[in-house]
Design goal:
The complex is a heterodimer. Chain A is mainly alpha-helical. Chain A is 53% helix and 3% strand. The two termini of chain A are 28 Å apart. Chain B has a nine-stranded antiparallel β-sheet. In chain B, strands 10-11-12-13-18-17-16-15 form an eight-stranded antiparallel β-sheet. The chains are: A mainly alpha, B alpha+beta.
């Protein structure tokens, strides 16, 4: 079974219409994997949408996390920490440690930060890779080739019959044009 | 399901009984040689008329001496040229049955045709023998520049046929109830590529069969119930024809095609399958200029339509498919129109050619390559940003 692939993000974006969307939905109905991916993609999109508008606190937290992981940037000071007077015993104890040596709390905090950063990068990367599928947007008109017009021109050029599905304008009619075979001049042979 | 008896009664291959073929050769060869040597056009001897019938055996022209072959070829080309002219100059009406086979399945188109001498052609597709299925189509060749014809017999295509095939006169025969002159096109290896039956009295093409390299019939066009002159004019339908196909220009000159090439349009001199560029035209639609380039080897014909832009997200009547690893869309139900977009250009191919040739043509035209990892990531981040943009 071929999965939706690049069309999944287009489906989540609502860019598929008509028969393409129906086919995608039909596939989703029978494919748990694509269904799961679609659900994850929707959730991700919703979260990202609310990131900037609906959840300022989370956005601030994200910014703070990003700021903390900047290369060589200083660790932000934590509120509530007691100021230690120079020359005190605690200060002496800290000063006597090797440079770079941290306590267990600091190590745990660093692990959390790294875990959060990695999760953020992996999540965004996965989302970007999924969203980046499909064709590239091209400036210019969106075209549905007029196959009947092309077929007629082809017939004129080649001296043959226009062997095309009759997709005449809705107002066009001809005697018997409403026959069941109107949409299929090319009848199949066994 | 449509089953025109005149079509389905034919066998798909050319694998007729060797005994019959040998007998026909014995009967046809003297008549063919006599006809070739006397170079008489129009009527043949009773012997070779009996030897060649529509769908029957024909003379083995390849066995004739070189001089005889040359004379035969000259005569065959002359007959085809007369047929191309007759398709324009005669007034006639009839029913054309077009059958195409591909991958073991076939499709049939039945159309009524009315043609007035030097003027207009009206075709109306029939889904079955008695029900009309589509709007009448009117094509006007008042300016006598549109290379219209019957069964693909037009002057430009005859020139290409002469270039890519060995065209020989194969004697007289019959198509339906009418006496016909038979012309064959053979490949370089001597295999039969196509056979034409031209009406003996008027030279109008009555039947054409095209064979693949394995001697299987891949298309058959039969013009039946033909009537000429005043009868045809009287029978022209009074119902209003559909809109003309559009203001396509006259065939573009080489200089115009070169200018279009320098403007970024893809104008190739040839395509796989020894298809040569033989005509070009353009028109303007509501979505921009459309360029039509016609390629052919005299039998197979491929039209490539180009238009700047991108395919619409919704393509009603088109089905997604893959050819040679490229994603394309195939028009339903005729399956002979293919479209895709690449680098800001929409390509649509309408083909009357073997499947292998069509696949090769599609592969030779531009396609978008799948984006690399970083390009895809970059595009994804842009899209994600557009999702979180509250002003988007």
């Amino acid at each position: 079974m071929s999965h939706l692939g690049d069309r999944l993000s287009a489906l989540v974006d609502g860019e598929l219409d008509g028969a393409e969307r129906d086919r995608a939905h039909a596939h989703l109905a029978s494919c748990e994997q694509c269904r799961t991916e679609a659900a994850e993609l929707r959730v991700l999109k919703q979260k990202l949408s609310t990131l900037m508008t609906g959840a300022p606190a989370e956005a601030a937290m994200t910014k703070r996390l990003i700021a903390m992981t900047g290369p060589g940037g200083p660790m932000p000071a934590r509120r509530g920490l007691l100021r230690v007077a120079p020359g005190s015993r605690l200060a002496t104890s800290r000063a006597s440690r090797r440079p770079g040596a941290r306590g267990p709390r600091s190590a745990r905090r660093r692990r959390y930060l790294m875990l959060g950063t990695v999760s953020l990068v992996v999540g965004l990367g996965t989302a970007a890779f999924s969203a980046g599928g499909g064709g590239e947007a091209v400036p210019g008109p969106r075209i549905t080739p007029p196959v009947e017009m092309y077929s007629v021109e082809h017939a004129i050029t080649t001296g043959q019959l226009p062997f095309a599905p009759p997709m005449s304008s809705p107002g066009a009619s001809s005697p018997g044009a409403s026959s069941p075979g109107a949409s299929s001049p090319g009848a199949s042979l066994p | 399901m449509l089953r025109p008896s005149s079509v389905l009664s034919r066998r798909r291959g050319d694998g007729r009984s060797p005994l019959l073929l040998a007998a026909a050769l014995v009967m046809a060869l003297p008549g063919f040689l006599a006809t070739a040597c006397t170079n008489q056009a129009g009527t043949g001897t009773a012997l070779n008329k009996a030897a060649t019938t529509a769908g029957g055996s024909v003379a083995a022209a390849g066995q004739a001496p070189a001089t005889g072959r040359q004379v035969s070829s000259t005569r065959a080309l002359s007959l085809l040229s007369q047929a191309a002219q007759a398709a324009i100059l005669m007034s006639y009406q009839g029913q054309e049955v077009v059958t195409r086979w591909s991958d073991g399945s076939g499709s049939v188109l039945v159309s009524d045709i009315w043609h007035v001498s030097g003027g207009q052609t009206v075709t109306q597709t029939l889904a079955a023998g008695d029900s009309l299925s589509s709007q009448p189509y009117l094509s006007s060749d008042d300016d006598s520049q549109a290379p219209e014809g019957v069964l693909g017999v037009t002057v430009p295509l005859i020139r290409l046929l002469e270039t890519h095939y060995t065209v020989v006169y194969a004697g007289a025969g019959s198509a339906g109830s009418r006496v016909a002159q038979v012309v064959e096109a053979r490949r370089g290896d001597g295999s039969l590529a196509a056979r034409f039956w031209l009406d003996d009295a008027t030279m109008l093409p009555l039947e054409r069969e095209v064979f693949d390299s394995a001697s299987h019939v891949i298309s058959q066009d039969v013009f039946i119930q033909v009537r000429f002159a005043s009868q045809a004019q009287a029978a022209t339908p009074v119902s209003g024809p559909s809109d003309p196909p559009g203001p396509w220009t006259d065939p573009l000159s080489n200089a115009q095609l070169l200018a279009l090439h320098t403007q970024g349009w893809l104008v190739l001199a040839g395509l796989p399958g020894e298809l040569s560029l033989f005509t070009g035209a353009r028109t303007t639609t509501s979505t921009g200029t459309v360029l039509d380039l016609g390629y052919s080897d005299g039998l197979s014909v491929v039209s490539v339509f180009e238009q700047r832009g991108d395919l619409a997200a919704k393509l009603a009547g088109w089905q997604r498919s893959t050819v040679d690893g490229h994603v394309i869309y195939v028009a339903e139900p005729d399956q002979r129109s293919l479209t895709w977009s690449s680098h800001g250009m929409v390509y649509t191919v309408v083909a009357d050619a073997p499947v292998q040739t069509v696949d090769a043509v599609v592969g030779a035209l531009p396609h978008d390559t799948p984006p690399g990892f970083w390009k895809r990531m970059s595009r994804g981040f842009v899209r994600l940003a557009s999702w979180v943009n509250p002003f988007h």
